[in-house]
Amino acid sequence: MTDMSSHPNAVAVPLDGSTIAEAAVPVAAAIADRTGAVIHLVHVRRMVPADDAEVEPAESYVARVARGLTERGYSVTAALLPEDPPELLKPTPSPGAIARQIVDYAVTQDADVIIMTTHGRSGFSRRWFGSVTDAMLRASSLPVLVVRKRAGKPVDQGFPRILIATGGDDAGPRIMEAARSITRPFDPQYMVVRILPLAYTVVGEVVPATVVYASMTAVDEEDAAGRELAQLARGLESENVQIVTRLHAVPARAILELAAEHDVDLVVVGTRARGRIDRILIGSTADKVARGARCSVLVVPAG
Questions:
Q1: What is the Cα–Cα distance from 226 to 247, expressed in whole angstroms?
Q2: Where a domain ends, among 147, 169, 195?
Q3: Which of 100, 112, 107 is nearest to 137 (CA)?
Q4: Closest listed residue to residue 254, CA positions, set 174, 184, 303, 197
Q5: I need a surface site. Which of 114, 225, 274, 283 has the fewest CB within 10 A?
Q6: Domain tally, the chain
Q7: CA separation for the pair 303, 301 (Å, rounded)
Q8: Which domain holds residue 273?
Q9: Model-level pTM?
Q10: Are residues 128 and 181 in the same domain?
Q11: Distance CA 20, CA 155 (A)
Q12: Average pLDDT over residues 7-15
């Protein structure tokens, strides 16, 4: 992966042959417009179930999308993976296998971010491609930008309003660095958010228990979190930053509520270090936000 301290030098866009998957292309182009990044298109052969007939051969499809970008002056590469699959002998690869192939390819191309949509094609295949995106969030060592189209919000205009959610751990600088690198070329408004758990004590050893909230401690934690966020926000190198702390029992729900309340165009969230369970299912705030947000989401992997 290249140094993201300034801006992306390369982006990877997985495609499945559908116009929905191609919704990620204008976002890649918008980034390239501002940074000169190379756009790497990647299509895994037999990326859809065998009973879903290809509308267009993979070679001509990828070439057509690439040609549309090169004719507009972008630097583009296109890849079909694997190059020579045993079509008659090998079953359709799983979403996890697809995700790993794409990540491996993106890493070899020094991509800084993988940009993709959540669904492709229609019916079963729509859900199947969405599961590739889910698998990507678990497998990727690179940030993954999950693009969602919004009515009246052209995706090629970038992300005017961005919410960055950080936790109270050492992942904050990594999340801020990725957010700055990928979004700073759009000169956006930033909202840097910390969701704090409700401070409480459970009194009693039997059900029903009594819950006592420690309000003074919560206020102190909010103040400390606000100071920490202000320090982190300096790395965005932007004067247009709002600092928000909020107490909530469910961090993902709080983030989604804030995103809807402020009509943000992008949510940036990080994953926690992966353990045995996380390798199977993220089950984290990042996973819930990526699934539930109505806007695009940038998921920054654990370091």
A1: 12
A2: 147
A3: 100
A4: 197
A5: 283
A6: 2
A7: 6
A8: 159-300
A9: 0.84
A10: no
A11: 13
A12: 93
Tell whether 90 and 17 lie within a shared domain. yes
- The 10s digit of each residue's pLDDT in 34-79 is 999 999 999 877 655 444 445 578 888 899 999 999 999 999 999 9
- For 96, the token pair is 């996890």
Sheet holding 296-300, edge to edge: 76-81, 38-44, 10-15, 113-117, 144-147, 296-300, 266-270, 161-165, 189-196, 241-247
Distant-in-sequence, close-in-space partners of 37: CB < 8 Å, separation ≥ 6: 7, 8, 9, 10, 11, 28, 31, 75, 112
Q: What's the rounded mean pLDDT across residues 210-219?
A: 59
Nearest to 143 by CA among 95, 179, 192: 179
CATH of the domain at 117: 3.40.50.620
Are residues 293 and 194 both part of a single domain?
yes
Q: ∠156-171-225 over CA atoms, to 5°? A: 100
The two tokens of residue 94 are: 């799983």
Q: What share of the chain is helix, strand, coil (3-state, %, to 5)?
A: 40, 20, 40
